[in-house]
């Protein structure tokens, strides 16, 4: 490893360098948001676009420094690939004349995930929890389907706009599950079916307060499982530091006793 490469590694891993990249990401997010205002004067818009290009060049320089510092090891980490893909998409979006592609410049804001370790932990936990979430999603879909068939048979004739067929019923039940406007739906059905409140109450309790909480429980469990190794590493490193300090104190005490005896 050359001296220049070691300097590059020290630079990209420095806390000040990380803070600088985070600050550029935040400033870039503000600039992209400000560009959406059509009433800004032309000089201001030109300055914003110029600053956006400067920040993009800074991101490209950062990626080049990291690749130079770590060489092939850079591509063995998933978060580095994520960074690289976002910067490449940003370059394509910035150099393209198509407005649809230029909108993808906002993906640069996602780089804040790779800069902050705790955000990486949350995203990793979400990815790890996908199998459990998919299982709960299948069960929730089955529940909605069963209730949709029941609702179509019970209320479809009188309320075809909400429960006329299986797809309309599933859409209405999904809206009820989000607790958006469900009292109005239940009240309108209750005008023709006095005991319909049993159906709606059962669905809300089962689909909303039970199944959706399972999603939260799965994510929280995975976050705790992913966080435990990090805490264990922190505790182990603290213990190692404490042992080294104790050994140094013992050596200093031994040297002091030897000097007194002489």
The separation of the N and C termini measures 46 Å
Low-confidence stretches: none
> Which structural class should the secondary elements be placed in?
mainly alpha
Q: What is the overall silhouette?
A: flat
Count of DSSP strands: 0
Please count the helical segments: 12
Portion in strands: under 5%
Radius of gyration: 29 Å
Can you tell me about this structure?
The protein is mainly alpha-helical and 262 residues long. It contains twelve helices and no strands. α8 runs antiparallel to α12. The protein is flat, with a radius of gyration of 29 Å. The mean pLDDT is 81.
Q: What is the element layout, followed by pairings?
A:
Blueprint: H1 3-13, H2 15-34, H3 42-70, H4 78-95, H5 99-102, H6 112-115, H7 117-128, H8 130-155, H9 160-163, H10 166-177, H11 182-190, H12 196-261
Summary?
With 262 residues, the chain is an all-alpha fold. It is built from twelve helices and no strands. α3 (42-70) runs antiparallel to α4 (78-95), α7 (117-128) crosses α12 (196-261) and α8 crosses α10.
Keywords:
262 residues, mainly alpha, 12 helices
């Amino acid at each position: 490893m050359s001296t220049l490469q070691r300097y590059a590694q020290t630079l990209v891993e420095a806390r000040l360098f990380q803070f600088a990249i985070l600050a550029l990401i935040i400033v870039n997010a503000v600039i992209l948001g400000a560009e959406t205002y059509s009433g800004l004067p032309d000089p201001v818009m030109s300055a914003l676009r110029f600053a956006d290009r400067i920040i993009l060049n800074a991101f490209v320089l950062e990626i080049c420094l990291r690749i130079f510092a770590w060489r092939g090891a850079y591509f063995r980490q998933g978060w580095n690939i994520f960074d690289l893909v976002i910067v490449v998409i940003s370059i394509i979006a910035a150099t393209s004349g198509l407005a649809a592609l230029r909108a993808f410049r906002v993906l640069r804001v996602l780089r804040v995930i790779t800069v902050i370790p705790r955000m990486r932990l949350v995203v990793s936990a979400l990815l790890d929890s996908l199998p459990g979430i998919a299982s709960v999603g299948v069960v929730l879909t089955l529940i909605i389907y069963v209730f949709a068939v029941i609702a179509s048979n019970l209320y479809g004739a009188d309320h075809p706009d909400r429960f006329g067929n299986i797809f309309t019923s599933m859409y209405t039940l999904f809206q009820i599950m989000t607790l958006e406007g469900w009292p109005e739906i239940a009240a309108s059905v209750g005008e023709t079916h006095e005991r319909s409140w049993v159906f709606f109450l059962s669905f809300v309790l089962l689909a909303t307060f039970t199944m959706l909480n399972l999603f939260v429980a799965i994510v929280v469990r995975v976050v705790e499982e992913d966080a435990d190794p990090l805490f264990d590493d922190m505790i182990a490193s603290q213990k190692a530091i404490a042992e080294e300090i104790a050994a140094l104190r013992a050596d200093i005490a031994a040297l002091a006793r030897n000097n007194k005896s002489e």
